[in-house]
Amino acid sequence: MRNRLGDRVLHWYTWLIILWLSSPIAVMIVFGFNDKKSKSNTSWQGFTLKWYQQLFAIDGLTEALINSIVIAVVSTILATTLGTLLGLAVGRYRFRGKGLTNFLIFAAISTPELVMGASLLSLFVSANAPRGHITIIIAHTLFSLAFVVVTVRARVVVLDPSLEEAARDLGAGTWETFRLVTLPSIMPGVAAGAMLAFALSIDDYVVTSFVNGSTQTFPLWIIGSVKVGIPAQVNVMGTLIFALGALVAIANSVSSRRRAAR
């Protein structure tokens, strides 16, 4: 009886935590359908679909969203490419300076965003680099890189080396072995790292606010519009971004299960 009671308490506690974490997302989705009559979008005033029809009616918001998506895609490609190679190296090989490399990777994860943003700003100012899209992409690539490395390395350390040895015994070269055996084996880790890098980039505010110059991203535009009232289109765009991320995560999970079943 005591064990069953403990299981039930843990079960309901888990669901309460999930509901609590999901409540802001639910509010965002609901208020994307709110037929507000004033600048305030904090009270329910009726149901409407007009904000989906007028999704791109605010030029500044649309431009900020496009900037965020472009920056997130480019930085994700860079961070995933570099992070996959580095994760493969630290997870597979022994080399001089490996301990220092691991320390720097975890230091990048644990460093507060405020410190990272200030240090990057100092670097760009010292180099007389104009702040804008390029500096934001560099910054997002740097703080996303460590997360990709850790995710890929976790996959590499459980990879069976006999598969690669068998491929080489059958005549496959180094590139063919990597392309046909190694990369498909670590692809779940690569995909997870890429999704994490994209999520970190598209919603970053602190680091971006240091290195953006005059470039506006989606989070920066939202924070800047708080005083005058956040338009309902923000909720709609947030809902669409969340839905896209959820679909990608579900597709990746289904694909991983199918590969495991084979």
TrEMBL record:
State the InterPro entries in the record: Bact_Polyamine_Transport (IPR051789), MetI-like (IPR000515), MetI-like_sf (IPR035906)
Q: Which family does it belong to?
A: Belongs to the binding-protein-dependent transport system permease family. CysTW subfamily.
Pfam families per UniProt:
BPD_transp_1 (PF00528)
Q: What is the lineage of its organism?
A: Bacteria, Bacillati, Actinomycetota, Actinomycetes, Streptosporangiales
Q: Which GO terms describe its cellular component?
A: plasma membrane
From its record, what is one biological process in GO terms?
Answer: transmembrane transport
Instruction: Specify the protein name.
Output: ABC transporter permease
* Gene3D superfamilies according to UniProt: MetI-like
Q: SUPFAM superfamilies from the xrefs? A: MetI-like
Show where the ABC transmembrane type-1 domain sits: 65-252
Signal peptide annotation: none
